[in-house]
Amino acid sequence: MHDLEAAILARHSTRLFRPNKPVPRQLVDEALELAIHAPSNSNVQPWQVVFTTGPARDRLVKALLAEAQATDPQIPPLPAQFEHYRRDVGKLVYGAMGIARADVAARRLAVLRNWEFFGAPLAGVVCMHRELGHADSLGVGMFLQTFLLALTARGLDSCVQVSIAGYPEIVREQLGISDDMRIMCGVAVGYGVTDFPANTVRSPRNPVSDNVSYLED
Ligand SMILES: Cc1cc2nc3c(=O)[nH]c(=O)nc-3n(C[C@H](O)[C@H](O)[C@H](O)COP(=O)(O)O)c2cc1C
């Protein structure tokens, strides 16, 4: 039995993986066997995940990179009042990589690494049936977090990536995902490069009281 609190605190987004250090399939399968215990609306178990590795992963990366060099990803913008979170995390991550905000070319190159799954040898795509709704996406999120924690407890690193969902047609075509499925995000899995400064970034959190309130009287 692993320590839950230790896994919660150790999990973080990794943005450079060791491409040649393979991910043991057994560890991923163990994490998945735990993740399916996540709760879901009416026990629908709405998560669908397609993993690619080896040549299939490389083909997906090649197609995504080609598209990312040609067109912008279809990612809805954040509402204005939340935009600062993206800026702040960008500053931390790209700052750790030594990239100044004004250095558009370097930043663009770094952003492109998203569509290489940051070099992770195991690339997952998380989907949900198109006719399911908000309550069901909560179930997908619960599955995903449980999966990430179980991976962390097994010494594996990860990064959830909405950027992968920015090119749904490419993902669909490469992985044979039907139109019934909404592509929600990617998940990169592997062993992080420990001395890559951006991998040591820990994104700050709001104090609990900013996001949670108790009403008693
Ligand atoms: C739904 C979702 C989508 C995300 N998409 C991306 C992404 O496209 N690229 C990226 O570098 N990080 C992505 N992240 C990682 C977040 O930036 C990260 O979780 C957040 O800054 C908190 O940092 P931590 O994961 O290290 O605790 C995503 C995370 C989630 C949950």
UniProtKB/TrEMBL annotation:
Residues 8-191 form the Nitroreductase domain. Keywords: Flavoprotein, FMN, Oxidoreductase. One of its GO terms (molecular function) is oxidoreductase activity. InterPro entries: Nitroreductase (IPR029479), Nitroreductase-like (IPR000415). It holds the Pfam family Nitroreductase. Belongs to the nitroreductase family. This is Oxidoreductase. The lineage of its organism: Bacteria, Bacillati, Actinomycetota, Actinomycetes, Mycobacteriales.
